[in-house]
Each structure stands twice: as structure tokens, then as C-alpha cells.
Design goal:
alpha+beta, 7 helices, three-stranded mixed sheet, Butyryl-Coa Dehydrogenase, subunit A, domain 1, about 220 residues, about 35% helix
Length: about 220
């Protein structure tokens, strides 16, 4: 295990072996077991446990080593989720979109985008998802719009089932720009982005898988 030397706080470890990843997951699972029922009953967010997840280096285990991550296998990632979820399934679910977005960046991003975004993950930032939209035919039916104005870019739209967004440093959400589908990555907090924990479900009540409203978001293009 190595220590990230970037000045971003909190400083995070970089896990480079399967054994280290499983040991870190087991340590976190032990911490999470106590209070898991109370957190779910009273809807107490596991913020400190999520910070532990990040500081231990678990958030970057699937980032390729060329970008400073652990470069570990999907099998190891799945085992980390299994171990943590056995103690607190909400804590296990919250980072799922973080890892899905890492793979999206690797599959669809340019080399510059991969370097920029994945370096933030290695430094300890968490990715969150602005999920699908209500009253649409399917998850790829996107009504949100990203438009270019004289002042820069403007994003309008509302998402739901946005697991992880409330606890994220970077929000990723889909929109249509012109005629093309795009993914917007938004540093949080951001003026014009409202994340609402209005999720209602039986069990796993602390995932905050609710609404993300971006109807007032504007920023300048870099």
C-alpha cells in the first residue's frame, strides 16, 4: 500500500494488492456492523464510514495503475462489495455508481479526460450519479438539456435514483447537447444543483437514492 502525496485532503492510501483490498474491506465491515440497524431505522447517513472507505484507498482499487490506482480485478471489487454489504448493505450500495463511472470514463473518455478525472479519484474524490429520469420510456430516454449560452454552458433537468450523489465530490449526469448525448461531470457543491433525499423504500434507507435537480446550473466552458 502506498500513500498519495497530493495535497488534497483527506489524503488517501493507494491499495495495490488483492489482499490489502480485502483486509481494508474487512476492517470497514467491522466498523460498519455496529450501528447498521440503527442507521437504517433512523436514516442516519454513514458519512464517517464513507470517509473511511475513501481514506483506506478502496475508491481507487479499479483505477488502472497507469493513472495511479490499484489496477485490481473486477473479482476483487466484487469481493470488497460483498464483504462490506454483509455488514451494511446501504454502505455497500452507495459507491456502486462510483465504480460504474470509473469504467465509463475508461470506456468513453479521451486520454486527457481519463487522466483528469481518474487522478481526482486516486486523490480521494468520490463520483456520484445523477440517475435516470421519471416519466421516460427507458433509462436512455434523456430529457435533460445542456445548451451553450453567451455566458457559458447551462444544464437543465431533473434526475432520480441518484445513489451516491449526496455524498459525492463530482456529480456525473447525462444530457443532450445539440443532438448528441453527453455526460456532464460537475464538481460539488455547485450553485444551481440541488440534491434531495426524497427516496422512499423498504430497507437501505441511507443510500439517499433520490432526486438531483440541475435546473439552475450554469458554468463557463474550460
Amino acid at each position: 500500500m502506498t500513500q498519495n502525496s497530493d495535497s488534497l485532503t483527506p489524503r488517501t492510501a493507494v491499495i495495490t494488492t488483492d489482499a490489502e483490498a480485502i483486509a481494508a474491506a474487512q476492517h470497514l465491515a467491522e466498523l460498519a456492523l455496529s450501528g447498521a440497524i440503527e442507521r437504517d431505522q433512523q436514516r442516519i447517513y454513514p458519512r464517517e464510514l464513507l470517509n473511511q472507505f475513501t481514506q483506506l484507498g478502496l475508491g481507487s482499487i479499479s483505477v488502472p495503475r497507469e493513472y495511479g490506482g490499484g489496477g485490481l480485478s473486477f473479482q476483487t471489487v466484487a469481493e470488497v462489495f460483498r464483504v462490506i454489504s454483509a455488514s451494511d448493505p446501504s454502505l455497500g450500495q452507495i459507491p456502486q455508481n462510483h465504480f460504474g463511472l470509473i469504467q465509463f470514463i475508461l470506456g468513453e473518455g479521451s486520454a486527457a479526460q481519463q487522466q483528469f478525472l481518474l487522478s481526482k479519484v486516486v486523490q480521494g474524490q468520490r463520483l456520484g450519479n445523477g440517475g435516470p429520469e421519471k416519466n421516460t420510456q427507458h433509462t436512455r430516454d434523456v430529457q435533460a438539456r445542456l445548451v451553450t449560452t453567451s455566458q457559458g454552458l447551462r444544464l437543465t433537468g431533473e434526475k432520480f435514483y441518484s445513489t451516491g450523489a449526496l455524498f459525492a465530490d463530482v456529480l456525473a449526469t447525462t444530457a443532450i447537447h445539440g443532438e448528441q448525448p453527453v455526460m456532464a461531470f460537475i464538481p460539488l457543491p455547485a450553485v444551481g444543483v440541488e440534491i434531495i433525499d426524497d427516496w422512499s423504500g423498504i430497507g437501505q434507507r441511507t443510500t439517499a437514492s433520490g432526486t438531483v435537480n440541475c435546473s439552475r446550473l450554469r458554468w463557463r466552458r474550460r
